[in-house]
């Protein structure tokens, strides 16, 4: 695995560049990402390009032996461009145009901006497409960040109507598919359809779902235009994009299919603070992040990549600036995060950023260097990680154990119609992922269309609309299967299937969900050490009632190799189900100490301690790095025996 | 009492209609409501009507012996109509036009839409006004639902100015009435008056109150236009409207005076979740709803009806789709709710809906049938209720015990100027209602103008502006009277009366409120088993200090037959006051077991257990239905002895 | 110290005026503020003035011996004026124009309204500038109240561009100063710059800070225009403005420099409820307000006044109307508040309002009289206070002990970039102020440019950008110094200084802050009786680690006479640091009983009990008023020995 850094030569005096490059190389970094926010320096006036500084920056980095990942600067169009087309901004859900002054200030549906984005991409690619230092391209930056996938602009409305006409052909088909007879919502032409925001009460969920799918497709096609230009003008270089954490507004599986590599931006402490983890977890892991945040995304984005190539292009090296509260990582965490990425098969971990900028929005975001160019605590950990990696060599091929099925479409369906506040397919997946990982199992998070061969166990946390291909694959699968609530409960147009839930999954698990409930937090059905909470599915089935609450509520049904978890898959309930399923699948679930996680390849077993106390881990294999007395933020690597 | 269902033939293949009709009749249902959302099917293009399907639907239902309640479809104008008049939408408090895509997307003040609503009402009434199956009309659907009474549109502003000119005659009178000299808010003409939203700090409360009254009047006149057409074209049929729960934005007493029957839509579980009940109540009654939600509205809407005719046109039969959390009712609750309506004198309970729709917004809203046409749990309970009703015959005439005075105007005044967050006349009324009902008393909720004869006791929970008629009636009344805080504290123009509060009520209770406070939750004055909380009135009076807190705060004053509750009327305080007043009035307050409620007619005593445990009830009378060991969700009926 | 009242003759029949005036004088009041909301009565039609009523009102008050403070009515322009220039309203952060119907409905940058404000000020000053009864002017009313300093209007945008051009000269300087190279935010001209609201993610903090400074300057220049007219037309009268509590949106130090007297509006109970005090404090002090609310503002606004002249122009006399909850003050509090102002050196305490108005927005706001003209509880306390003041004579000259440095600019910087939710320079200052006052110390809150001579101790709670003048003054200061976290951490353009924090303060305290963190509430580093919380600064320094947490976190560093508090300065931590610093400075910190506060002059020691229990205070000096057994809301005054 390579290490790298994100660097902004335009932020620093030119006479600092060579020394920066040297220090990067000395620290064991071999790749450097640049350029993704530099449009106003590349093209300071319309049509007037200033390549000189960037030529020199690239050559300086190249001279130090660094490989360059070059970004297209389309996330930050300059003010002069925005002034040329004031309707290029996205419009928010309240109908307000968003403005200039930060970044990502464009609507994916604006044709004028699409042309400009293609123009600047072509210009940069023409200049540097064959430069020997340039080994990879990044398209744009963090699609979807700051709620930028979905726009309620006129441009979006017009494009949505066109997209609908393409999808449904005639308006009657759309009316039928959406059930528009309900509440007299029938349209007489595609040009009558509005965006689903600002309605009196909720819009038709089918309307929302179509709009979510359209909005995702706009991101994918915007990205594809850049990829096509880059492949034309910069042959034999990889193209990647940097996804964010917990962003689900566009379909990363779709994006991954058109990229060479999927990368992501890993900020475990910021994500812990900003996403709905429990207060207990937020307190316990304040300086580490929840132990599964990084791993979940590693396993998710690896599953998004066409050929499994992935990496971390932005790794948190210290406190960030953007969360409600911004603590520093526990000493050791920067190294731990780096090696956890290695254990999951990353090809690169690149730290964001090389040096903390003293100005503008991110001035309180740490770098490997402090603003005064002294080493920040993260730098030593990066150097240590480089040494560890050199010591370990290749991470080894992953052991396949559990496939966890996740789809972005499922997340949009459950966000559109959660039935119970705060519940969705993503968080069902995260919750099951945690249970599996606490049992020491390797998990691959894969799309419904992925191949299930080689796995001992499959979990489908929540997949309301089930593709036929998955049904076939699951029927052919003879390992253990866990199906979570709401799976199979919807058609592809977000209606209830003819024979009720679990719809197509009846082929696998013969049952009918006669009623679905959602419960407020605190209400539960108590079982033997577990509780059924939040989402309940009531089944008519010949299956065995495997876990039954004291009041008779069945929390888990079992039919042959398939278990149906009939409540929100959390805590002791899903842990018990996962443990039973894994054992039957021939896996060996363990009980890891609190905060400890492992990841297994054919070469190594990696162990990581996200907790605040030293923990003793007992794993088969010879100690290769660290020891089985795993200190807080500690890493141990054992040779697989 | 009759039973019925809400049915949408336009949602289902025509070949299912006859079987649906037969099954309804078999289940003991005799009435079916249809048509209220079908505008786009009745008039698919402007001026082009398609009556065929509706003719056949009505005839099919008729053939099965069902009586039809037909709705005017004005809550769901089609898209082609909205496109003709894009300014017909209501505008929200933030100044944003609301859009097409759900329902109730019109502003009550838009003259163009008023004309269209009259046109379609006339068309439907002409077609079916004399059809033998049609026994009742419903105007529109759920006025005020989804915050649709109040609109900040230009149409509303223009109509408001006209309304003000009618009310005040000259602008000087308005300036004086509102006290516009304050902060130089004086107007020089009615055309200078704006709507009270988006001001810098709060607008004049008198301005708000006038706007609230105007907004209510717009609903009433909109409704009246439909009633006039229906009475003209469909003689000898009843006209009703379906009110929602806890909607107070328009004056239901006014509405009731122009209807033949007042009906309402009873969703106890959704209301429990969405309204400010305590967390403890939300946990205890998650599957039952608070024990007083349905009864409160029964007693309230009965008091709204000109001749006391009322019913439940939409009864929750299982989980709904629209609350934050949507649990299923406890087994037995659908029957319990039905019989509780009977006990309060309903003429109809109609379940919403016959069959769960598999598409669009309400696809997760249960029906009596599942989407696959199998019986949902609610159907069996409806059948049981039909059998119970047949068994019991007439419910009997209600026993008059306590009159509780509520006015919508009072609610608007207290919402406009709550002085203490979250407090209002409605919740004062609900709180006293609960105390009375926990004491086993029959309560009628009536407007200030209603006749008090026959009652042993009157409660005025919170009536800031007191009509002269009520003062006279109370002076003539020799039973027990309870007056709650803030009563009499305002003039009709929301100012402080010349002699201070309780204003006109001084005729009844000689006192002066020298100071009114509001306290944050948690602050209280502790008494002997009770506390004075939230709203405090300090009185100068010769009355007896009946309940005095340890620190000297007087929570209840007594003068002759009148008690003044000088704090927020909740919990043990109002229970104690109610008990004393009732005992003096010759009523016999009891202490019902937790969760148990009763309702008494001259024929029967009904007992209902909303709790989670079996309770023993000891009531005079012979067991006629059920037993005095009342299980959770159980009903017992005793013959009045 | 004089006493007074705020009076609105235009609200009352003319035949009540003389009696009101007589009763004021009888109560011991000598000053009366009038006129500040009377524009629509002074100029009912454009250009048509009605002076008669105001002439008579002034003469009536004068005849009773009262001195008049006359307000310019510019906070309440009439509707006819707003209709002439509909773009005069401020625009809120969401882009919505605010409207007519309350007060303060103007944008400070609107040139048309500025001309109108000057015109009416000139008219009033011409009429009454030389009237013998008029002794003081008030400009406008409560600048900034109801969030009215900052406007996002087109007028504001245009004025901001002009202001920026004045400040930066050329656009390149602005780009460099703000670091606009970051995210390609570079501008090519001042006319490209937008306001910082409605951006996609946060705007550049330097952009925000400039806009905050500009917005403050607009208030100052708006006010200056009135002052110039008043000084021209009303020679030898004082000009003051009435500031609100906890309003920091404009720079009160700047305002104070152009006024003769700074006054403020003291509503301790409303402020307690509406500002982020702990729930425990809100419960403990529900009827008193937090013990430091009034004193903090007394000491702050005294420091704003050019010559130290200040007063309370609006003193809460009973419950207010505008907080979420509005309790009554504990008996005695109105007197206590009055004498606390005296102890801090006020020249006037004026009660708001003379008589409670029965109409419009503030009808639930108590006065000294009830709406029925009877005495409200506050009147007796005012009379008692007048007697106490007469008894005591002059308050005496204040003892200088601790100087606390606060700047509005610091507050804007920390609001712009809090790094940790809810933390800011203001609340750091309030927290340290409380610790000092609990130790019985006199505190002056002064701007960074103020003279430090005479103080034994200086506290700099949080001053990110440090003026050179303060650095010099602190270097020359040989008493104890406390520096709070984030001090010196920013340049004047909100970037990180070249050598990192504490920037210029390194001259005083040799250290480098290598890392700054913010922690969520509940996370802490436990020390010996104290905790390090919320904001943490990590230092490289040769200084002594004076307070070290169990885990090694250093919470307080000490170097010579300077202490650096490296965590949020709250609770036991800052109390311990303050105590150590004070003792070293030769002050004698005490431990006052809970809720008790003192203030010392060269003549008296005043003691106030804000608690709910009687407390024994042991102070040197002879009892002059009250006794050392200090009852709840009690005041005692001792002659300084
Ligand atoms: Zn990033
Ligand atoms: Zn309904
Ligand atoms: Zn004020």
From TrEMBL, chains A, B, C:
It holds the Pfam family Glyco_hydro_42M. One of its GO terms (molecular function) is metal ion binding. This is Beta-galactosidase. The active site is at 142 (proton donor), 314 (nucleophile). It catalyses: Hydrolysis of terminal non-reducing beta-D-galactose residues in beta-D-galactosides. Residues 6-390 form the Glycoside hydrolase family 42 N-terminal domain. Transmembrane segments: none annotated.
